[in-house]
Amino acid sequence: MQDQLSNLSLRHGTIDMVHSSTSLASFSLSKNSQAEADSHTGLPKLTFNEVTLTFVITAWVVVIVLVGYYLKVFDPKLDPFRKEGTQKLTKYPNSIDYSVHEILQSIRRLKHDSKSISSQSSRLGTVLNSCVLTFADIQIFTSLAILIGAYASVGCDIVAYHWQYMIYLAWLASITHLASLSFLRNHLANNPAKRAWRLVAMCTIQVMLSVAVGLSMTFTDDAEDPDEGLYENPWPKHAIKFIVLLVWGFAVRIAKTFEGFEGGLRRTASRLEQRGNRHRRVFSGSAEREWDHTFAEASLPRRMWRYFSVPVLIGFYSVLSIQLDLFTSLLAEVYWLFFTIIWITARLIKLRISGHQDDSKWTFGQVLPIILLVAPLALAIEVFHTAPTANEPIDDLQENSVNKSDIRDLDHIRSSEYRGVFFLAALTYIELAVYFVLDQPLTQGIETPLVVISLSAFILQPVLQISWVSHLPRTSLRFNFGWT
């Protein structure tokens, strides 16, 4: 039987467990067809209809709900860690979310009253929170179940196709839940116990998933033809992307669920913007401000130095402030969640096409998980109908202990400087999404794309952004010097 397995055709991989002298299992990827592998291993099939549809549908429902929350319910003026049911304003509103919110308010269907929470918007927010919370908890338990099941099969001749499928599905569940944590931070901040056990569960899932990705990198391919040399397996290159996204996504989203980290970044962005505005007011020489005689009477070298250095300093403060705002914005959460799930869904479909077509047959086992998706939807409908109606009063809505004069001034978001830097910063995010989503030879691996992205994100883009911001202050200074 072992000789037959080693000589099967080159299509899809199976993982042969090879125990070394240290009793540690190492994986070798031989080229077996999926159908024959299933018949030899005797393992239950990880079918597309039974598992993938359930995971993918649940994940996309969460995406749709979160996008709906951002478009219709989210108000960037409110403190994300306020007491539930209140309207406490934040001292440091996010400029990115605020500017997008202004655009959305110009659309009649998306416009809502930001000064007071109406009964309708309160009901909608309650329903969306319940939907996200329910589907997020489903992602926790389903990802734990599939990871535990996969690890329990390590001692068997588990198929590489199934192992990779398990990684994609577990990652799909974890990334969906992590994004949900950011959207539910107001609810979780008021319920520390709920936040604690979910963070512990997600930490466990991330560790198990990271180990699974690490094991997948030990896959080796036997050559189809000994004369052609070893076949290059692209999976380790994808595994590197997995590890980078797992560590980065988990660390950032966990930190953003706590007020100290999120509030600190917002406060820093506000102070950087204030410093830039202070330099701009002093050295811009605008018509409505009195000219600084000390600067006007300074020596020519000093005036030349300020002419070139001050606009760059203004640009540095403004660009760094916008980058921090973009990092902490809810818009970035929606963006990364959307493109990450697109990439995982595409990888699942591509992997499924090369799989065993008999897995697509619909039986009772495949239909049952799809039907069970009705449960969270039924809960959402129930919450919507039991929420207070427009005729019922909603208590404890007013809690505004922040002096409006202390709130960060966001008038600068309408300037051409801000919009230009915002556009350039968005290009960097788009470039990163293209790298992770597109499955092309140029975007595979980690070395070449990392160098290209680093040069663009940390050198080219900052230089362009600073040049854009510093152009207008330098123009106004040119006229004050009497130059033409």
Automatic annotation (TrEMBL):
Keywords: Membrane, Transmembrane, Transmembrane helix. It comes from the Eukaryota. The chain crosses the membrane at residues 51-71, 127-153, 165-184, 196-219, 239-258, 304-320, 326-346, 367-387, 418-438, 450-469. InterPro entries: Elsinochrome_Biosynth-Asso. This is Uncharacterized protein. It comes from Fusarium denticulatum.
